[in-house]
Specification:
By secondary structure, the protein is of the alpha/beta class. 45% of the residues lie in helices and 24% in strands. Strands 3-2-1-4-5 form a five-stranded mixed β-sheet, sandwiched between helices.
Length: 140
């Protein structure tokens, strides 16, 4: 079994998280510049077996796609062209940034570290992946 990778895509920064090979636990991986995310993923998947990409889907409170969805859709289109053998699924990313900040507070991170937007994006990707893994576990 390969890993599942979550992607919290942003034009400036893209947070990444991966599961263990048993697809049970989500771990933060890194944050990369948005314009280099596909290249990073291509390199990563040449070294590690990845079964699925889970991309955070930006939605508004009324369940409509947010303004950022057009950028995420363009990224996913590029990802599917560059790495066609790995399927891509969307997962609702509402509140992940808020949850990431709360996790940082709960974890005792100092204010200076909590202002690190790259860390917030990586934690957001981890939250997306953990949510996806839990949903998968309970719907099988």
């Amino acid at each position: 079994m390969g890993r599942i990778m979550a992607i919290d895509y942003g034009r400036k920064r893209t947070g990444l998280a991966v599961s263990d090979t048993m697809q049970i636990i989500a771990n933060g991986l890194t944050t990369v510049p948005g314009n280099r995310a596909v290249d990073y993923l291509k390199n990563y998947t040449s070294q590690e077996k990845v079964d699925l990409f889970v991309v955070g889907q930006p939605k508004q409170m009324n369940n409509e796609p947010s303004e950022n969805m057009r950028y995420v859709a363009a990224f996913v289109s590029s990802l599917r062209k560059m790495i066609p053998d790995i399927p891509v699924e969307y997962y609702d990313e509402r509140f992940t940034s808020v949850m990431a900040h709360q996790a940082m507070i709960d974890g005792g991170l100092k204010k200076k570290k909590r202002q690190d937007k790259a860390l917030v994006d990586e934690i957001s990707a981890t939250i997306i992946l953990q949510g996806y893994l839990e949903k998968k576990r309970f719907t099988v």
